[in-house]
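Q: Sequence in, structure out?
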Amino acid sequence: MNEFSVHDSTMFNAYQPNGEVAADRWVTVRHLFDPGHVETPADKWERGQLLFTSGDYIRAAEVLAEVADEVPFQTDLFLLLARAYYHSAQLGRAEARLRVIVERDPVEHYAHLLLGRTLERQGRAEEAVPWLRLAAAFGGELTEV
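A: Exactly. Output:
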């Protein structure tokens, strides 16, 4: 039985603190009556995006980390995972993912910006400066950071 089986109502009936149905429930309901369904990386990606959009950054990071393990070379996935880590104050994990992104794609300006902000948030402002300058340069901003 997988985690979205018809017999396991705990996943389908999850609610947010405000009483609303959790955002990712609409992804899982499509397979409610398909007991043989195995969640694909695309399903997890969609669920992770919905969790991130709804502000559930910790659960989004958990789901997106699973996908990143299965599909390790997707920059947009790593970037969203890093953002989920950043917003859930998992700054060491955010930094590690962002360093992988900038190593793979040295002109991904948002990764440079987020890495700089992540370092600042960890109290490493001096180390953040070059990353923020690169982000500004790649983003077309020529002002001093």
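Confidence is low (pLDDT under 50) at residues 1-13.
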